[in-house]
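Section 3.1: Structural characterization of target chains.
Under the original work plan, the team committed to producing a structural model for every single-chain target entering the pipeline before any wet-lab resources were allocated. The record below documents one such target. The sequence was received from the expression subgroup and is listed exactly as submitted; it comprises 251 residues.
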Amino acid sequence: MLQNPASRNEPAKSAFTLTRLLLVAAASIAVAFGLSACQVVAGFSQPSLVRVIDASYIAPAVNIYVQSTIFAGNVGEGYISNYGTTAPSGNALVQVNAADGNGKLIAANATLAPGAQHSVFLTDNGSVPTLYTVTVLQDAQAPAPAGNVQFRFLNQAPRTGALDVYMVPSGNTVANSIPICSNIAVGQTCGYVTFAAQTVTMVITPTGVTTPKYTSQGLSLTSGQVRTVVMVDSQLTANPPVNVVIANDVD
């Protein structure tokens, strides 16, 4: 039986029409997505990540605010918060208040970069009447190179003065080691310093002196870790020992 030519072409025409419809729909979606993406990128700003570290020996319990948002409430020496988010700013207000409501202890303004991690440190400065210092630093966000760790050291021990830091491998002593950071002045930072992941003892001494002001337990360090160490006077005396607060920047 002969087929009607029009009947033979009908499936082909239907397939062609469907293909055209799909292409048009895909193009419309792509255009819509492109416009939407442009709008999002144009108006989008990554938040800043902020954590707070209370390393003050003498401060009472405190509330710490970043741009009027509380990031730590009723905390004391040795407290380290998780990272929280806030809007990026070139002049962000950081304020520390006594948790009992007895007023502001210290305030400072800081730059908080979009998409970056920052640490807000409350420390003692040994002076009167201010007593406290707020320091804001930008933190590392990437792991240390394979097989290594990275440490940053912040000296906030005004009664002790400039410091040397040793990371002494197992089986070694301070006497046969050299400092990983030397002559860190009060208020200054050393790091990030990269060294091999291993078990070490952290020893902190006044600059040029081998008598320790602080000796840690053995620290078993693993590849990729990044840490910040805040070194503070443990007492407001003429020759106090040193305490440390260690924050995990990257595990």
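The chain has two domains: 46-139, 140-251.
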